[in-house]
Amino acid sequence: MKIEKYLFVVCLMFCFFANAQQPNADFKKDVNVLIEGSQAGAMPLLFNVQNKYALKEIDEFKSDKEFFLRDGLPNFFRKINQNKSTVNIAFLGGSITKAEDQYRNQTLTFIQSLNPAANIKGINAGVSGTGTELGACRVNEQVLKYKPDLIFVEFAVNGGSNQAMEGIVRQIIKNNPKTDICFIYTIAGDQYQQYAKNEIPAKINGFEKVAEHYKIPSIHLGLYPSVLASQGKLVWKSSSDIADKIVFSKDGTHPAKAGGDLYAQAIARAFQIFKTETTVSNHELMNPLYVDNWDDAGMYSPLEMATFSKGWTTINPLNYGHLKTFAPWFSTLSKTVEANATCTFNFKGTVFGFFDIGGPEVGQVLVEIDGQCVELKRKAGNASVKIPNETGFQCLVNRFNTNCNNRYRGQFEMFEVPDGMHEVKISLSPIKANKVAILQGQDLYDIEQNPDKYNQKVFYLGKILLKGIVL
User: Fold this and answer.
1) Mean pLDDT of 31-53
2) Are 168 and 144 in contact (CB under 8 A)?
3) Could you tell me the sign of the dihedral formed by the alpha carbons of 103, 160, 428, 298, in that order?
4) Backbone phi, then psi, for 236, in 5-degree steps?
5) Strand 312-315 to strand 377-381: parallel, antiparallel, or no bridges (unpaired)?
6) Which of 173, 358, 374, 406 is deepest in the core (most CB within 10 A)?
7) Tens of pLDDT, residues 366-387
8) pLDDT, average across residues 201-222
């Protein structure tokens, strides 16, 4: 018995010291990585009102710069005031929209309070780290097909072009001129200081040009928090609670629950004014503000428009533990591990790209245009590679990046071409990326402990992106 107790104690001590030697990877990562990591996968596109997100109060704050009515939201308010009506509310944006408590759920719960008898349904079209270009490509599939009555558009933090923002608006109006639109502006970094000085961030000013042109109401969600910060009542960024102050966020971008409540309060205050304008109207498809707007952008299934060589398989992400969270975005994935396996498609337009999944095992792809390996002109994307291309191939696109460190994330790339008809061929490259070099400055624990996971070349193709038409 004594020997058994001795062995048991030794075993416990061994386990304790073994675990003590393991570095805490999460502890070594900064707050930005932790927050973005928690938002890596997709969330269900459709969601319901959850009373736990109800706003406890709506602060009294008056400023003629917090929101702009323009043509208001007449069709939405008419419908929500109907007894037992079903009202679909869409949220199109980035990670702040995608997250559970950074304004979206609080806003939907507030809208329910406008008519408790209404059947309120939410559409969560938030994709982390993406701006208006990808938004213009996915608005039809992820938003319009669900027949929304009101669409909130949130891209002030992730940005993108005014042309793509106009493309989003024009696609919505073409689909249904009775669908109401509301631009909402979140902020990040030191932009709260600009608001405190009565200045508007440049990107928001750009989007306001589109809002003015199409008479779309807009709400500056960051104005009131900025005023509270200037009064010493709010701290914009802190990793811990501070007595007698509101901590808006941990990373300076993604609101904590308290910050998300403040964002939603701005929407609630604006709606108290917006609801007075209830004349039903069709939104007018104005002459384009930009001739190169993105009203011809779209997102397509590769299986429906591309030709595949041998070496590809079609998989359902629901059947794979590391991929199943992406099923709301990709009902199927085209996967290859075979070097030189090709995917070819034809289109007429000015921009093409792909929406895929990044992770530890992904490799590099060659992108050939009209039969040639030419220098690619990047139009938009959310994958960053810190080191230059070491191979000399101008058409080599690395799908492994700093966001693939022990996690999976939706990512995309888009490239510009001369207006016209083009053939695009995408193939998995046999050339391995230097993943350790790409992760320089990050915690290398996972790649050092699990080298086989990273020593692979895989491509998970979810969607083909176009600004143009399929041929």
Assistant:
1) 70
2) no
3) positive
4) -70, -35
5) unpaired
6) 358
7) 999 999 999 999 999 998 775 5
8) 97
DSSP string, 130-180: --HHHHHHHHHHHTGGG--SEEEEE-TTT---HHHHHHHHHHHHHH-TT-E
Distance CA 61, CA 220 (A): 13
Q: How far apart are CA 69 and CA 277, in angstroms?
A: 9
Cα-based torsion angle of the residue sequence 442, 443, 445, 446 in order, rounded to the nearest 10 degrees:
-60
Task: Judge contact between 47 and 99, C-beta under 8 A.
Answer: no
How many whole angstroms separate alpha carbon 353 and alpha carbon 450? 31
More confident call, 279 vs 301: 301
Cβ proximity of 153 and 184 under 8 Å: yes
Question: In the predicted model, what is the mean pLDDT of residues 41-59?
Answer: 94
Q: Are 380 and 134 in contact (CB under 8 A)?
A: yes
β pairing state of 180-185 and 218-220: parallel
Rounded to whole angstroms, the Cα distance separating 72 from 279 reads 9
CA distance from start to end of the chain = 79
Q: Which of 182, 181, 194, 270 is nearest to 225 (CA)?
A: 194
- Confidence grade of residue 42 (pLDDT, cut at 50, 70, 90): confident
| Cα–Cα–Cα angle for 177, 183, 187, rounded to 5 degrees | 165
Q: Can you tell me the mean pLDDT for 195-213? A: 96
The answer to whether residue 39 scores a pLDDT higher than 80 is no
Q: What pLDDT was estimated at residue 34?
A: 34
φ, ψ at 172 (rounded to 5°): -65, -45
Cα separation, 256 vs 248, in Å, equals: 6
Q: Does residue 314 carry a pLDDT above 60?
A: yes
pLDDT at 6: 42
The values of phi and psi at residue 343, to 5°, are: -130, 125
CB 272 within 8 A of CB 266: no
Contact between residue 235 and residue 247 where contact means Cβ atoms under 8 Å apart: yes
C-alpha dihedral (369, 139, 400, 372), degrees to nearest 10? 0
pLDDT of 55 above 50: yes
The pLDDT score that the predictor gives to residue 348 is 98
CA–CA separation, 354 and 66 (whole Å): 37
Q: Are 224 and 262 in contact (CB under 8 A)?
A: yes
Q: What distance lies between CA 362 and its chain's CA centroid?
A: 21
Please state, in angstroms and as integers, the Cα–Cα distance from residue 461 to each residue in 161, 358, 364, following that order.
Answer: 25, 10, 12
CA dist 190 and 194 (Å) reads 7
Three-state secondary structure call for residue 1: coil
Token reading at 362: 């992904």
Q: Which two tokens stand for residue 67?
A: 């929101």
- C-alpha distances out from residue 412 to 63, 160, 171, Å: 39, 14, 21
